[in-house]
Design brief:
350 residues; alpha/beta; Rossmann fold; 9-stranded mixed β-sheet
């Protein structure tokens, strides 16, 4: 038997071709947030990646997406993961539907992006986190606010001033998303878990780890939604390892004529910070005032970072890893537990 040798010049070409190979991406869930990501993959914006397989329980959604990207459509994610050679998978399903797909993605050795909240079951999320770590897979979760151009400036300012910051107020007050699963705790997790979790994430990003959670909530304001069983309004008191204390308000009862609010305001002895509407930042000190407005496309940056991290085999490129999403889930589930137990103080395990 003779062994054919690849001439060195051809080997070089082969390596170059391999280096140019696109990251093959699959999607589980082709609903609202998946379309946010699809727009970043469309029109040559991400030349190093290609959506090659898509899956949704709803036929019209999956067919439309498959056509858009020339991808193979699936109804069953197990079949997709078994048949397709994928490098990375996005999971964009409703909060109650994280029922095994992440574990199978990890088992297959694919890199993983999961939309927030990454599950409603903390143990499930921790198992996925352990699997990702054991297999050293690149991972990300959909907390895109961390990619704002001024986010590192805001974080550094908080760190420099943390000793003189007394407390913060944070808000996600607005209307109610229209998706069927949002109005019930068992399918969405409730507003703190599903929506205000972005605000909790930014509080953790700025102020450090949460030590205790104590929450109250109320129902009965909303009268125009059928089959609705989650809090209309809640207030969650948090203490942090950095010493700061704060309250995160959630409300989904605002209708025509009302005014919502989104952001984090921190009050210091000689300073003040107001991060508003996920787009602007005002910092005030004794002798200066600084204003920032977000200047980058945070969703595009989030998806670019995921693909770049895969290509460079460098998890540190990801600003919102799965492990951070697990911590956010832990805090918001503790808020639900506290609300259910009449405001009981919950101490989080280190
Ligand atoms: N990062 C953000 O800013 C942001 C914004 C909106 C929504 N989200 C999150 O994204 C998730 C999805 O929200 P959405 O608005 O896209 O919901 P959606 O209802 O529009 O879409 C979810 C899709 O998942 C599909 N699906 C459910 N189970 C499936 C399964 N087993 N296999 C294949 N497909 C399945 C559904 O059929 C549906 O099409 C939620 O957790 C939500 O909190 C994140």
């Amino acid at each position: 038997m003779t062994t054919a040798r690849v001439p060195p010049n051809l080997l070089h070409h082969w390596e170059l071709n391999m280096a140019k190979k696109k990251v093959r991406v699959g999607f589980i869930g082709c609903g609202g947030i998946a379309h946010f990501h699809f727009d970043h993959y469309d029109k040559g914006r991400m030349p190093d990646a290609q959506i090659t397989a898509v899956c949704d329980l709803l036929d019209d959604r999956v067919q439309e997406t498959a056509k858009r990207f020339g991808a193979t459509p699936y109804k069953d994610y197990k079949e997709m993961l078994a048949k397709e050679k994928l490098d990375a998978v996005y999971v964009c399903v409703e909060p109650c539907a994280h029922t095994g797909m992440e574990k199978m993605v990890v088992e297959k050795g694919c890199h993983l992006f999961v939309e927030k909240p990454v599950a409603l079951d903390l143990k499930y999320a921790k198992d996925v986190e352990a699997g990702l770590k054991a297999k050293k897979l690149i991972n990300a979760a959909g907390f895109q606010d961390r990619y704002m151009d001024f986010a590192p400036i805001m974080r550094k300012w908080v760190k420099d001033n943390i000793k003189q910051l007394g407390f913060f107020n944070a808000y996600w007050v607005g209307g109610m998303p229209g998706v069927w699963w949002w109005r019930r705790r068992d399918t969405s997790g409730g507003q703190a878990v599903e929506q205000t979790i972005h605000t909790f994430d930014m509080c953790r990003y700025l102020f450090g780890e949460v030590l205790t959670v104590q929450a109250i909530g109320r129902r009965g304001v909303i009268t125009d939604v059928e089959n609705y069983d989650t809090e209309d309004a809640s207030a969650v008191n948090l203490t942090f390892d950095s010493g700061i204390i704060g309250t995160v308000f959630s409300g989904c009862f605002c209708r025509e004529g009302s005014v919502g609010r989104n952001g984090i305001t921190a009050y210091g002895m000689h300073c003040y910070m107001d991060y508003a509407e996920r787009t602007s930042l005002k910092i005030q000190e004794q002798h200066r005032k600084i204003d920032f407005t977000v200047g980058n496309d945070i969703g595009q940056e989030e998806d670019n970072a995921f693909i770049q991290a895969i290509l460079e085999k460098d998890q540190s490129i990801i600003l919102s890893p799965y492990s951070e999403a697990v911590k956010n889930l832990e805090v918001t589930l503790a808020a639900n537990e506290s609300m259910d137990k009449g405001g009981k103080l919950i101490t989080l395990k280190k």
